[in-house]
## 1
Amino acid sequence: MILSRYNLKPSNENVVDSNNVKNKSNLIPTFDEFVAKRDYVGILTLIECNAGPDKNNIIQNELWRAFAHFRLGEYRKAIETYEKIKRNKESNNSQQISNVELLSCCCKFYLGESIDQKFIESYDGPYKPLAERLKIYLDLKNDESTIESMDRIQKVLSKTVEDQLCLASVHFYRNQYQEAIDIYKKILLEDKNYLALNVYIALCYYLLDYYDVSQEVLALYWQKHPKSIIASNLKACNNYRLYNGTTAEMELRNLIESFPTNFSYAKDFIRHNLVVFLNGEGAFQVLPSLMRTIPEAKLNLTIFYLKNDKNDEADNLIKNVEPKIPIEYILKAIINSNIGQSQNSHEHLKIAQNYFQLVGSSPAECDTIQGRQCMASYFFLIRQFEEVVLYLSSIKSYFYNDDAFNFNYGQAKMMMHSFKEAEEALLMIENENLKKDLVYICCLTRCYIMNAKPTKAWDMYLKYQQSKESTILLHLIANDCYKMGHFLVALRAFDILEKLDKSPEYWEGKRGAAAGVLQKILNKHDPIEHLYEAIKLLRNSTNPQANQMITIMKNYSQEM
């Protein structure tokens, strides 16, 4: 991550002189060797054994101790070490105390704790550029990221690598991933030793939905550092998007087995990602405890609720969240859309439309997969299905086996009267809960009818005739089959409706369907067997006209 707890310096494997190493003990590496290998546990071990960089300089050793804790993500321990330095009698230099306080503020920033911004603004010492960068991050965190502040950022930051990385992180924070990529690539062109920047570039491509490109860029770093937690985790995330959760899970399982014991934060986000890869398995056990340390945990728990039709629980979880990032807007939109449709609330539907349109039309998201999904959702809610199909078709290749996508695509195609493609999309759905949904049943039934498969439509009714909504399905079959000239199936449906309700309109529909059956037989379009079934169904009616029609049909059958 750009502001990651593991934002390590790029490796330089030539730091340790090989000739010097040969002359030293092979039993215990030197302090410089530990630094070169970025072995922060080793650094702490040497300091504990009084074998730090300078045995006679307590302050120097403690600064290294704090640095190692910081790199390990142990910010609380780093702060405690800095406090110890400030209390030390040898720390009587006001500038040194001010420097240590600034470093302590960096740790507090990562912990999400409050920081004395006046101190940061007034700091004037050797770490002035660091203080400026920290102030920029604080402004972003405090939601002061206006155009004016961006101008200020451009003026404050120099052309140094550190400042350019800060500028890239600002772009990253604002979801301007391509701008961040441009900066990282420029730095790499000037110095290829900054190998870790490939991880940042890969992360940006991942967030732009270019998972295959992300994987290629990431390989440049991962091949040299296969034990990197961040790189391995990103590799697993790409596998999840490109293939499936099983492939990604295997990647993380192998990573967990090689964890250093003190990387507790890494274990947390790996546990979090495993829940996602396993399609929410263990969500209730894992995600609630991680919501304070991993912001995505709350969002993924919300997604889990939504996938399991627990809209109220999802709403309660993020009700007080003021959306700032795309996924928060999207979740709010989905929840409001669900409420709007279930309660017929125009107000909630309007909120959902606005949120979907806001994300889908934003410059940072308009060309991403989720941006196009949002625009499709927006047009779906305002019933402009031609636009829905346009947006969904552009990302169809990414969702070949996605049930939710195929459901929406099938509905949109049906509304566009592209019934053949609609049927194909709906039949690809495997989720049994979706297949039992009334909307799915009605959509597929209509597609069967419009695609001249009335028998399959009738089979759908027989399959769900015991459900509460079977009457709705009967109405659909009766009317659509009548319109399409599938008169025998329409007659069956009107016959059952007439039994349920003696309303004259059902008899009229039944009479017309029976006449249609006779007409198709006269025109040699249907077999005579249909006539026998029609006579049988007409006998179920008490209307006098039924007997007249039966007589006519019998006379015709005798002439055959």
Note: Confidence is low (pLDDT under 50) at residues 1-25.
## 2
Amino acid sequence: MIGFRTAAGWLDLSPGTIGLEISNPFFRYDAVPGVTSYPFGLPMTPGNLRRLNFPHVRAEQGETPAPEPVECYLDHQLWRIGSLIYEEHQPEKRVLQYKFVAAADDLAARIEGLKLAELDLGQVPLVVTHDHPDYALGMLKNPGFYGDKQVGYLGLLNAHIGGNYVGTFLSPQLRLVPLLRRVLAHVGFDVEGAWLSEPDVEQLVVYSDRVAEDAAGSVATHVVFNQYVPTGLTVAQLLVALQKLFALGYDFDPVRRILRITRLREVALDDAYLVRAAGAVTRAIGPKYEGYLLRMGLEDGEQNKQFDTSWRELRIDGGKTELATDAGTLLTVLDAGLERLLPLVDAKGASPAHELGNDSRCGLRLLFDRGLQPAAGGAYPLVTSGHVNTAGQAVGELALQWAGPQGLYAQCHQPWLDLLARAGVEERTQPFRIGDLLTLSPARKELVGPRKYLWEKISLSIHTARRLESARFTYRPVRR
């Protein structure tokens, strides 16, 4: 049995069934699938019209009805919170066509088209320090930031010489984890997961090509967060880019709007499993592994003509399946004059002053803030794509490159991609009750017969008056 309750009360349902698809969000690198129903009709009873605020009237007036927050109950138990998405009005049938979305699909409906630069993400006073909790002021080299403007600029942003910041050319780099929390809070979601508190992840900052100036060229008094993010970057693009770069899985709390972040390597390596009764196999396809080609983004500029950038790509076996992300990093090079490791880009920047234009031109580029590190002339705030300081000492366990022991492939992707390389596809129709549904986890393996699997998709047909009895599973075999 299925039922939906809005803040104004229970909705009236027509007798029959509603089809649901539950997608495991871990199996798509280019999107984050969740829970969605096939379109279904709600009868135009007085109660439904009142509780849904007459959506067909608003649609006829040119308004797009907003997603309606709703609780979904199965067999009288709360299963998911989500939203009803208005599709159309069918006057001859006296029904309003809706679909139900939850988890990632609910989030997707809320963030569609939203750009970070257009969100109110707050602000804080600008404090010239290397360890502010919301942003870093790590040294960067960009000779071309001001172009041919004569403003006393010597090619360094956040210049830190002799133990102190010098000059007025400051470019705050927002810390990724606090930024992610602010972005999701704007659309009503919290975020949690052990990945967020890993030391290397806590050190991640988002490169900005904007300086903290006002229109007159004076140092700004505040860091307004939405001014230091890539101008065209949407919330959805941010989530997908992080997912691809770090091999992350996004899971959702069923009854609270919480995004849970899981490392896919941990899912692949976990041996725990649940025993499930075997049903009838209806389809089986063997693995079709042809290798992977891993790519990340790199900021455009003259610097790419001078240095090796092959680290941004890694071919594994045949390399036929491409895993590319727009996210990336900056070149980090040893500056011979300063004897310091510095991120290097040679491109025009953004500022409301000096006719530079106020819009950021950079992509999503991440760096690690490794704190104050020793160098000639005194310690300086190191932001870098790597895991070592100028002296070659390890200051982290992860580097923003694909290859190598500290690279993203070995540290993040390899166990999960190995699992996918060996996994075919198998479909089964199996006994499935409400208790099974309430304890379902995308990260937990299932022992069905003699083999272990991870489920990729579950299809349900829920009757408005009868209990749940079975489901169709799409499985990925796990040969471990």
Note: The mean pLDDT is 93.
## 3
Amino acid sequence: MSSTSNTNNSHDLVPESKQDQPNSIRIPDRVDLWASPRSRQGSPSQSPRLGPSRFLNGEKSGASFVVGELLGKLWGDRKKQSKKVRRRGAKLWYQKKRVKGLVVVVALVGLFFLVDWFMLLRLQDHRVRPRDGSSRNSSSVSVQPQSQVKVKKPSKGKKHYSGIYGRLLALAAHALAEEPVVPTSAWRPCADQRNWEPDEGKNGYIMITANGGINQQRVAVCNAVVVARLLNATLVVPKFMYSSVWKDVSQFSDIYQEEHFINYLAPDIRIVKQLPEELKSLDLEAIGSIVTDVDVMKESKPSFYLKNILPILLQKRVVHFVGFGNRLAFDPIPFQLQRLRCRCNFHALKFLPKIQETAALLLERLHKHSAQPGLLDHYLVGPHAVSAIIERNDRAKKPSRYLALHLRFEIDMVAHSLCEFGGGEEERRELEAFRQIHFPALTELKKTEKLPSPAILRSEGLCPLSPEESILMLAALSFNRKTQIYVAGAQIYGGTSRLAALTNLYPNLVTKENLLSPAELEPFMNFSSQLAALDFIACTAADAFAMTDSGSQLSSLVSGYRIYYGGGKMPTIRPNKRRLADIFVKNNTIEWKVFEQRVRKAVRQTKNVQSRPKGRSVYRYPRCKECMCRTD
């Protein structure tokens, strides 16, 4: 990673005024080559397009017609005047004076034609296809606003981009600035406040084995805590299911502080580490105490558990939920139960000290050895953020800011989406082979049902953003080339060649593997959930966070955590993939300025949610009275 100086705010994510840049020149948006000087003063709000040139259609332009009339008039006047001179016997010097004047006029006209020819060549260089799809020749010029245009001499070693978005990536390289910070929020965290008596958990024991990755497991744990309180049951410390995709044997105590979890929630529910001896020997499957995801619908209401689960619990004394990632509704639910859900997610679940300690090193290097911790460091890594500062010698360094990008573009996500990403027949064969092994149900469904085509899926915003699309989004949002970008996620589908678009536009691109030594990463190798915890912390603590898939659990939990503790000072970029798909499909013709405007509009529309919409996740949208309190 190339290091940049802290003195020039190279990593600041707040843009400086582009009008102060010394290398910028001012060019009006519209140029009328034939108008008077006063009429040529264009407005930045005017269209940057010029009308079709008549020269290109073989017709006389307004300029050539005016010049022709001028020459004709001059030639006619000369003939009349020469006859008048001969009749009057005028002196020869008078004729010579007129000839010299004519020569000057002809020279000026010639110079005018030369300038006209040069301008036409420039217009032809920027020719674009007419919007109506006709084949007539036309010219357009894409002119940036006055204070944003920079003239750069082309270098001999200029990179040439290839692939589906090669043209847009080349345009993006010339238009990078920085992203503004959102205003402060009027909400403050208050899920730690309680207004009820402790629950004794005397109706029985609830066990869960959560499936999925670390983020799905986190949601399952929080939901199980709420169900245990609802049913007046004792919760056994959750277990995590081994996944053939994640291949991680980590359990709850390998990721989270078990004692803190038990003690912090003690005023809410009773939690034990294991079943009592008299219940350990029970065959739970034989007695009908196992409840799977098939038995519980998604987003089930509290009434479902009171009606269907409580009788089993009272009769068998234990219920074992297998799965349980997304099996409790967000609405309607009693106020205090919803608050308990938030309390578990934002307060009770803290990562192990070994994870916090390594994450503190990661944050220290991302912030270039800053003299003070970040806004959320205390909540994420606890006392390790302070100890890292004390151990440093140079405390006067200015902090370096960074943007975190979660690229949800692993092969499992790509294969399950049924989308295509420009890899042709080889990509289709590879993804289909992966589906047959890891998603057999999806493979069988494809044989019996007619599923939407990749093009339709993309137009509906159902495809994950590729690395190329993600980096184009950041460039359109005006993050400059000096921005330090932390890329979270597992192995990107396509490997380093797929990441080439990112590194070409943003050289200061880093991952946890770049910033941590092999010895520092060694305790977490082969434990994908623990590695994901490092990504979670780095993304949550970032000065700005950009997600590429709004449906991703990690992105949802990270953005919610930033809202809960960030005080409105931690911007999160949520793309509208459906709107972006409509923009990207025009990548062969769209002008960069138009592309910027449309992407910014598509992203801006997702930044206006101030409070949790009904039925939406409190983990992602904690701005609600159950989780946070208004300060105004």
Note: The two ends are 44 Å apart (CA to CA).
## 4
Amino acid sequence: MCLTVASLKQSCRLIIISYWKTQNYHFSPLSLSVSLCRMQLLPSKTIHLFLYTCLFLIFQSPIRAQVVHPCQSKGNYTDGSKYGTNLNLLLQSLHTKTPTNGYYNTSSGVDPDRVYGLAQCRSDVSSDSCRECLKTSMDEIIRRCPNKKEGFIRYDECLLRYSNQSFFSQPDIAPEYSIPNRNSAQDPDLFNQQVGVLMNNLSSTELSPSMFVASSVNAPDFQIYGSVECVRDISSKDCHSCLLSMINWIQNCCRGKLGARVLSLSCYIRYEVYPFIQARSPPLPVATPTVPPTVLAPSTPPLPGNKSRVIIIAIVTSVFILALCSSCICLYLRRRKRPIEEKEEDHALSHYLGNHDGSEIINASMQGDQVPELSIMNFATIEASTNNFSNENKLGEGGFGPVYKGTLFDGREIAVKRLSRSSGQGLEEFKNEVTLIAKLQHRNLVRLLYCCIERGEKLLIYEYMPNTSLDAFLFDSVKCAQLGWERRHNIVSGIAKGLVYLHEDSRLRIIHRDLKASNVLLDHEMNPKISDFGMARFLSGNQSEFNTNKVVGTYVYMAPEYAMGGLFSVKSDVYSFGVLLLEIISGRRNMSLHLPEDAQSLLTYAWRLWCSGRATKLIDPLLIESCPTNKVIRWIHIGLLCVQQDAADRPTMSSVIFMLETESMKLPQPKKPVFFIERAIVESDKSSASAKFSSKTDVTIKICSNNDVTISALETR
């Protein structure tokens, strides 16, 4: 394998990017080497990263971290229009003239197709780096904000903004975005104190003519470096106000974080624990350790006895270098695959959601039935709405990943489901949920508002359910009191209607496959909404069932034919509904550890009570006084019909609704659930002490059947 200098340069660059992005660090050669020294890595990892850094320093090319790229939503333009032509001319002008002094603003065209724009590079950035950064910004802003009349993109080294309205000399000081480092300080209080000192230094230092200032503070165990920058067409007073707003925001968003960026459209503030300003900037007030001078020894000719040693050293060095190069190449090939796949996956998914004809994922007979275009929300907005996905905003966590509460800028509350990269749920599952929910519209199904595919993240944004999920009330010793008979009646009816819509009334025949109490959300009026369609599947044409090698879902709600053989149909959801119905009636979990009579499951307990004529004992004590007993017993009967072993014996959901609402309909006798485990009940005469030593004991094994047969047998002890 022959490697050119260019390919080696690109290889090293990609390897460093792929690793350091996972650490949430942003790049310059100096920051890479300093940060590497401060990390505690395994020896092998340290060697690899050290080599990559050294190679990168040799073949260095600028790597800049993109901070934000919001596309303003104040109108679109069409390809080939005058506005598009003027925008291209404007961007070329900014790219050409800005590197001269680091700032340039201009406009192109005449109203109503006039475009205003500005570009600015950081004052410590060279002209070549500025030009390259702006070139990257031009390409990215067109790609990420296609046909948008307003756009803004910010890199560490430069910013670029355009609009169809003039914004020159108009300060925009409200904090828009905050990007904290993922790593936190060991002593947050001490670190925050030093950050406060740094912020005070930055705000009190007189700004340079380029609206830029940098400073640093020293602590016993660390140093913190910071810089602030404003757009050069606003006044110093406006810049100062903007920076104070940023500093206040840092105190709220980034406490204890080892680095952070906060910005608005007019100013930008950043701090890190490593120096990130280029060398050509004015020197920072940082204590520089004294390096002892290197003493050069006089050269001497090698002694004869050293000849073999020199040869050995040369061979070992050559082998070592060859091994290291091979390691670099292998690790590069292994690590580059995932970022490329993620980028291609995100691009494919974005294209699918916006433009794709979803016929091949639904079925051939629905060709031309377009997937409804789903609104895309940018990651920065979601991050801000959830307070950077803080634990205080976390609502819960499932197989997909954590769910967070968020509040948008307009005050709307949302629920954000964030795909966990370790969950194993990939493109198809994510696409599956988005596609299905986008096509399904029913008052008892949760509503999907937006989605996000950005920075390797996949997020779904739903309407917020203030009362969370059914299990949070049903199995809580305090909240369960809020679920009276009327509310439970409405919840059961709503779940059943939602399933009928999925199975029979929608354009697709959907099998949910994971119906359970935690996947039934409750709105502000306690109306139920079925959620979580990541595991749902559809049946095409006349297909009535489907077989899969991958069984997914929650075991205690899972139909036996699915759990044991991977076979699922609409009757699989009927089984799950039957389990859920018995849980709602009893207020107990199916696999509770506190079931009476040593029952292994709620189904076992319900079946025993039904066979012995004691079905009323299954009813939640909270309902006894308020519920119509006969109706509840009928519901228990329906629940047992739904959980029968043979799927063919179970009713359809439309039949279930008819049974629930029509009390005059005669119900068939239920058959034993598959998970019912018979137990021997030993009855001994405890009134006589001598009974313990009797040679024989009556053992009665009670087996429930339609004929109520009781079989007695004698067994020798």
Note: The CA atoms of residues 203 and 240 lie 7 Å apart.
